[in-house]
Design a protein that fits this description.
Distance between the termini: 44 Å
Number of helices: 2
Strand content: over 45%
Strand order of the largest sheet: 13-12-11-19-14
Order of helices and strands: EEEEEHEEEEEEEEEEEEEHE
Largest sheet: 5 strands, mixed
Structural class: mainly beta
Low-confidence stretches: 1-31
Helix content: under 10%
Oligomer: single chain
Radius of gyration: 23 Å
Number of strands: 19
Length: 249
């Protein structure tokens, strides 16, 4: 693991001298130390999708968040635009404004610490809740449109663009994690396959053999994007961490 480095940020403040009637200005040196960086993700050499966020993990709580944000620079040929959000007092996430450039090295600098990851050729997905379809594009070209079923009334799938957070070959879907008891008529405890997490709240794209008859004609899930097993396996094999999924009506 790359050794954590502390960075010293120096601000010079001009203060009026109080010496006997001199009226001269003096320089007061004020220093603020940014905590050591434990890790930056994506990691060195990792290949990710064009919507991948960058997270900086500090070893200690950050007192001056604005200063920490100014220390973070994400660039391809030039600095890239994005916005910051804090996961907690030790982790800040930079999210790109739009997409990262495709098939490009991306350099992340925090003070004197530098790391680099790469983007893929641009694998994006479009989930159309009105037409019950899930379309995958590679390099901007549609390569596969699949029947899908999204969230039913009261459990609508959130709209927006979501980068894939993780891929899970198998996953347990437990209704209790979204507040539905197993004893409820809406309760479930299901072993799922070929799943991609889109939100921390548990929205996934995944194989759903139990809803194949509804895929392509109605929305019946509790918020996830349901695909037929063969389609879900194909997407799992072709999608990467950070690939965006655009969900809309």
């Amino acid at each position: 693991m790359r050794k954590a480095i502390r960075y010293l940020f120096v601000a010079t403040v001009l203060a009026a001298a109080t010496a006997t009637g001199s009226g001269a200005a003096g320089a007061v040196l004020v220093t603020t130390e940014l905590p050591a960086v434990q890790a930056i993700t994506p990691g060195p050499g990792q290949v990710v999708g064009i919507a991948a966020p960058v997270t900086v993990h500090f070893a200690e709580p950050v007192a001056d968040r604005a200063r920490a944000e100014r220390a973070v620079d994400v660039r391809a040929d030039a600095s890239l635009a994005g916005h910051f959000s804090w996961v907690d007092d030790r982790q800040v996430t930079w999210t790109p404004a739009g997409y990262l450039p495709t098939s490009s090295p991306i350099t992340v600098s925090v003070g004197r610490l530098h790391t680099q990851f790469d983007t893929n050729g641009g694998v994006t997905a479009d989930a159309d809740m009105s037409n019950y379809t899930f379309t995958v594009f590679m390099g901007g070209v549609p390569v596969r449109t699949m029947p899908a079923s999204m969230g039913k009334p009261g459990w609508e799938t959130p709209t927006g663009t979501f980068p894939v957070m993780s891929k899970e070959r198998t996953v347990t879907f437990d209704s209790r994690t979204i507040g539905i008891p197993l004893s409820s008529p809406q309760g479930y405890l299901i072993q799922g396959e070929f799943a991609e997490r889109l939100t921390s709240g548990g929205v996934y794209v995944h194989s759903a053999p139990w809803s194949v008859d509804s895929q392509g004609n109605s929305n019946v899930s509790h918020g996830c994007i349901n695909l037929a097993p063969g389609d879900a396996e194909w997407y799992y094999d072709n999608v990467g961490i950070g690939d965006p999924v655009n969900i809309h009506w």
